[in-house]
Amino acid sequence: MSALAPVTTTLRKQATKPLYRYSGVRWHDSVRYLTGTTAAGPTVPSGPSIPAPTRTALSRLPWLTLLRSAALTTMMCSPTLLKPSIAAMGLITHPKIPLFNPETNPLLNTLVRHVVYDQFCAGTNEAEVAKSIQSFKTLGYQGVILTFAKEIVLSEEERAAAAANPGQYTQAHRDLVASWRDASLASLRMLQPGDVLAMKMTGAGPIAMDALQARAPMPQVVDDALTALCVEAKQRGARLWFDAEQQSVQHGIDDWALELMRRWNGDGQALVYNTIQAYLKGARAVADRHIAAAAAEGWKLGVKLVRGAYIEHEERSLIHDTKADTDASYNDIADKLISQRLPASAGDAAAFPKASLMLATHNAESAALATATHRARISNGLPTCKLECAQVAGMADELGCELIMNYENTLADQAAANIMAPKPYKCLTWGSVGECMGYLHRRAIENRGAVERTKHMAAALRKELWHRLSFN
């Protein structure tokens, strides 16, 4: 048994407790948990104390954002309201008639924009996106992850048709790749050093889709486009990650991501990241494959870890049977990287590879466990990965604001100078209202499967609203 085994056991037990003051635990209690002390005494080697703030974490949210977030999350807690809302969004996402198409119906476009788009999306053009990025960084987020919304989600019939007629491409298909590359380059040019571009490979059209489904090497036109993006990202000090997509193309995406990490992550910096979806039964094996490859070949591994957002489009047998299984998978993969556990498949690899982990989660328990484990290893002088945390725009503001406060208070404490607090990031999606509808529809479906978490969000937002109205 390793020396940290009792510590890890304690951390896992404590991570089941609420992290946030809105759940009955005051902020300074959660900070004591993160720094390793409780009323009963130390649970991990204690780090420097961090003073309790004098304001609530959510107090940094603008009034309009708070009101809209409280209203939408309250609605999402109600199955009576959420079910017809998801159905309506499905009609708009895949419109059969112009009336339901926000690109051709200006009244519908305005309605969707004011009700949901402005809450979850960054804008339709460069000026709007720049304004959104600045607003999030003003709140205290240390960076953003930006993605262009356009993507292709295939039905079973479309997947079968694509498989039956591979390789039949025209200039129009090559133009789709060029259009995707140019939109991605435009997104990159909106970013600052440390920010991230999230790439949806399905947006590149059939040439990419067919190769991904066949697990074929990158077609030259796609390879050239990705190389252009890597060059631009490196010059700007930004990063790239492959976003997760349907399993029909995900194995191919994994192959391409590994290839680009071999090319671009060899200088000790993680320029390219891949996404691992913990709700898949094969997620641990995917993580092990990535770790083993990086260890054997000597490049830095970049991982974005999510639970998953394509449950409506996947074969159910591929997904964990219970939420508890998904949670265990997520926490275990995070711990593999934070605690530097080499998989058996690494063979004779001498050491765990350098790694960067972007913990993309709205789950407070997972964030608490990962943060505490990371801090414990640093306090003990043990190697660990670079850790950052991210939530999507419009969701989990109570978690994001707590992470900001934790980061700021750690930086403010001179005694904590050697502690690497995870930087908080916000994931932003941009594009026209019509282009963003697939993304918005998935967000609604995701919330349908996380009612308890959404209730927690709504309660936190309502409490902050009441706090302001009562002038406390």
TrEMBL record:
<comment type="similarity">
    <text>Belongs to the proline oxidase family.</text>
</comment>
<dbReference type="InterPro" id="IPR002872">
    <property type="entry name" value="Proline_DH_dom"/>
</dbReference>
<protein>
    <recommendedName>
        <fullName>Proline dehydrogenase</fullName>
        <ecNumber>1.5.5.2</ecNumber>
    </recommendedName>
</protein>
<keyword id="KW-0285">Flavoprotein</keyword>
<dbReference type="GO" id="GO:0005739">
    <property type="term" value="C:mitochondrion"/>
</dbReference>
<dbReference type="InterPro" id="IPR015659">
    <property type="entry name" value="Proline_oxidase"/>
</dbReference>
<dbReference type="GO" id="GO:0004657">
    <property type="term" value="F:proline dehydrogenase activity"/>
</dbReference>
<dbReference type="GO" id="GO:0010133">
    <property type="term" value="P:L-proline catabolic process to L-glutamate"/>
</dbReference>
<keyword id="KW-0642">Proline metabolism</keyword>
<comment type="function">
    <text>Converts proline to delta-1-pyrroline-5-carboxylate.</text>
</comment>
<keyword id="KW-0274">FAD</keyword>
<keyword id="KW-0560">Oxidoreductase</keyword>
<dbReference type="InterPro" id="IPR029041">
    <property type="entry name" value="FAD-linked_oxidoreductase-like"/>
</dbReference>
<feature type="domain" description="Proline dehydrogenase">
    <location>
        <begin position="130"/>
        <end position="455"/>
    </location>
</feature>
<dbReference type="GO" id="GO:0071949">
    <property type="term" value="F:FAD binding"/>
</dbReference>
<dbReference type="Pfam" id="PF01619">
    <property type="entry name" value="Pro_dh"/>
</dbReference>
